[in-house]
TrEMBL record:
InterPro entries: Methyltranfer_dom (IPR025714), METTL25 (IPR052220), SAM-dependent_MTases_sf (IPR029063)
Sequence ranges assigned to domain Methyltransferase in this UniProt record: 11-137
Domain of life, per lineage: Eukaryota
Name of the protein described by the UniProt record: Methyltransferase-like protein 25
Length: 347
């Protein structure tokens, strides 16, 4: 509701009637914008499965929106302006000014969206809530040892301002501004963690340490964890570590890093051995449960600064493109880990 209200407050004074949702998912915000304010909404989404489900949901629950909310499959890139304009013209037969939005725009999508806004003449308002910074595409990796590598990203740093500052120092960003830093930036804010009960803290520390032990086992033995299900582990199976491991080994494949994909029968044959060894590793580390919450607290003290660093880099880039932009808190931090929107209007 907060994002929909922000969109309306930005669009209404400019008499914008059409919204383009970049990365529409299942179309929740698309339907909300039509229902609350009567906007025409074009939802663009990379996944055809999501498009199909959004259309089924629309037909079942919101049939009155069929002429006003449209969904199209589109793999958005920074050079997708002509594609978007063509889809828009086909769906709504008009070339009026539009607003580009993105709710939880993952990884590079938020960067592509910014460049689309810059280049698309009809786009007058831009509202993006970026997330999953650690999924930004990597341009170069340099292996340091078995578990560590330098990482350099295509779209971070983004602004010339930050690039210049880095170039004027001896600071090697590949050693520090890596995926762990970006993961830290997209952790949930401290607000919710501060108000956890002791029981919830205990559950959290178990879940984090259990997952860490699973990862440690994989790394030590030359595996990577390949998901077989959308969720690798389920909190409902966190009552004790044996149950956790047993459940996890049905939802992950321990895939050898240097070999071809394991056959299903080989996976099953190795499960008992893996389970025994992982439990033994847990017994060597389970005394660290309290330390987990200490480290979590330290992470959360840094989270806001890390996210601000990423967002300010993007804000600087937009200003370098001649676009006035600002960061607006738009979500309740207790409900959504990503609470900030980058907002811009073309003059």
């Amino acid at each position: 509701m907060h994002l929909a209200h922000l969109v309306h407050m930005q669009c209404a004074p400019l008499n914008i009637k059409v919204i383009i949702d970049l990365g529409a998912g299942l179309g929740y915000i698309c339907q909300l914008l039509y229902y609350l304010y009567g906007y025409k909404v074009l939802g663009l989404e990379k996944s055809q499965v999501n498009i199909d489900n959004a259309q089924k949901r629309q037909l079942k629950r919101f049939p009155d929106s069929l002429m006003h909310v449209k969904y199209n499959c589109c793999d958005l890139k920074c050079n997708s302006v002509e594609t978007i304009e063509s889809i828009l013209s086909n769906e709504f037969q008009e070339k009026s000014n539009v607003c580009l939005i993105g709710l939880h725009a993952c990884g590079d999508l938020s960067i592509y969206a910014s460049k689309i806004f810059r280049d698309m003449t009809a786009a007058r308002v831009f509202i993006i809530v970026p997330c999953c910074y650690h999924k930004l595409s990597i341009s170069k990796r340099i292996k340091i040892n078995v578990s560590t590598e330098k990482q350099y990203f295509n779209n971070f740093p983004l602004s010339n301002c930050l690039k210049t500052i880095i170039n004027n120092t001896d600071f090697d960003i590949g050693s520090f501004l890596r995926q762990p830093f970006l993961r830290l930036a997209c952790q949930e804010p401290a607000d919710r963690w501060n108000n956890m009960s002791i029981e919830t803290h205990n559950e959290h520390s178990f879940y984090v340490l259990a997952r860490a032990v699973l990862q440690l086992y994989a790394s030590k033995n030359g595996f990577f964890l390949k998901k077989r299900k959308q969720k690798g582990t389920r909190k409902s199976q966190c009552c004790d570590f044996k149950a956790y491991v047993r459940d996890s080994l049905t939802r992950y494949i321990l895939q050898p890093q240097e070999e071809e994909a394991l056959k299903e029968q080989d996976v099953q044959l190795n499960l008992d051995m893996h389970e025994k060894d992982i439990i033994e590793l847990w017994e060597n580390h389970c005394d660290k449960l309290k330390i987990v919450e200490t480290y979590t607290g330290l992470q959360l003290m840094l989270q806001a600064s890390a996210e601000s660093f990423v967002l300010q880099d993007r804000l600087c880039w937009m200003e370098e493109q001649g676009l006035e932009a600002k960061i607006i808190p738009v979500m309740n931090k207790y409900l959504s880990p990503r609470a900030y929107a980058i907002v811009s209007q073309k003059k």
